[in-house]
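// run 5 | inverse folding | seed 20
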């Protein structure tokens, strides 16, 4: 049996003291694997600093970048978001002792954990930071990025099907955004993620769990294949969304056992 703890959207750079409290929560939960589904910090600069306290406590920490980790600062003139995703963030995670999700599966006891950041079908408006803060060469629309991510996901799933008995898929943006339509305005749904990722996921019979982030809610649902696949979102959120911090910390890590 493997216990997998997961969390996302902790936005440590917006919460003073949250990292220490989150590390204390890890000690109490003590999972075999900790999955971090993106948006821990903005940009790549602090990834090592936030991952190291976690990798010192958990044997297997799997980090997947969110859209915020792919944002570029003004001084990143010779770096683009593709380089962050494929080269810089994997290196930072490795140095910190974490496994980088997004390019290849992680295997433990014939369980595969894999995923991609995903992307948006469209931006909400011209004011959306992602429109200004990311740069993916050779793409002209958000859907171009989605197609690239879907190809990466499909490749990983095909590899995992050959070696694993059970597969856990992790995405940052939502692979089933239409299921969240009741929570947001109609124009916001394309900014939640893309159904294309969900279509890829549902092709593979060994997928037993889907974990996502990005949308700052706590959600437990099921997706197609006779609604038998659990889909969970366990996002922490910004300070103004958290409310009672003690309660938020208590629920900061959700676990599943396979």
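// decoded
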């Amino acid at each position: 049996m493997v216990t997998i703890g997961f969390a996302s959207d902790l936005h440590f750079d917006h919460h003073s003291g949250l990292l220490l409290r989150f590390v204390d929560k890890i000690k109490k939960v003590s999972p075999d694997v900790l999955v971090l589904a993106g948006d821990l910090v903005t940009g790549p600069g602090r990834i090592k600093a936030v991952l190291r306290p976690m990798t010192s406590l958990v044997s297997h920490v799997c980090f997947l970048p969110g859209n915020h980790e792919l944002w570029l600062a003004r001084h990143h003139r010779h770096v683009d978001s593709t380089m962050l995703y494929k080269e810089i963030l994997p290196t930072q995670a490795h140095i910190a002792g974490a496994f980088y999700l997004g390019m290849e599966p992680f295997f433990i006891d014939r369980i595969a954990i894999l995923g991609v950041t995903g992307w948006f079908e469209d931006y909400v408006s011209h004011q959306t930071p992602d429109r200004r803060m990311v740069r993916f060469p050779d793409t002209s629309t958000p859907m171009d990025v989605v197609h690239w991510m879907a190809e990466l996901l499909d490749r990983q799933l095909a590899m995992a099907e050959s070696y694993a008995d059970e597969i856990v898929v992790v995405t940052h943006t939502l692979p089933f955004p239409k299921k969240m339509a009741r929570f947001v305005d109609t124009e916001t749904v394309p900014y939640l993620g893309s159904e294309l990722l969900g279509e890829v996921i549902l092709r593979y019979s060994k997928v037993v769990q889907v974990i996502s982030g990005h949308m700052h809610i706590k959600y437990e649902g099921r997706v197609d294949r006779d609604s038998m696949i659990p889909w969970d979102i366990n996002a922490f959120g910004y300070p103004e969304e958290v409310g009672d911090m003690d309660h938020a910390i208590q629920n900061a890590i959700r676990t599943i056992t396979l």
